[in-house]
Design goal:
The protein has about 80 residues and is an alpha+beta fold. It is built from 2 helices and 4 strands, in the order H-E-E-E-H-E. The radius of gyration is 14 Å and the shape is elongated. The relative contact order is 0.19.
Length: about 80
């Protein structure tokens, strides 16, 4: 997900927390089966973490890998 005009790491974390909360609160019905979602987020900010889209995606992917290793719902910020 790309967000424009995010006012720093705290705002990005808040947006990810809200999205994760919305995804996990409602079970979804898929082909007669109820599924509960769990979200993990890797966050990278422009220009703090990278100055081009490729760099931002790489940093976000690294942060997402850390979130996945943590298990459960998790948000990780890319290191500066």
């Amino acid at each position: 997900m790309l967000l424009a005009d995010v006012d720093g790491p705290a705002a990005a974390h808040k947006a990810a927390t809200r999205l994760g909360g919305h995804l996990s609160t409602t079970p979804y019905l898929l082909t007669q089966r109820s599924v509960q979602l769990e979200a993990r987020f890797g966050v990278a900010l422009f220009p703090d973490h990278a100055e081009d889209i490729e760099g931002l995606l790489e940093k976000a992917d690294q942060a997402l890998s850390e979130a996945k290793r943590a298990g459960g719902p998790a948000i990780r910020m890319a290191p500066i």
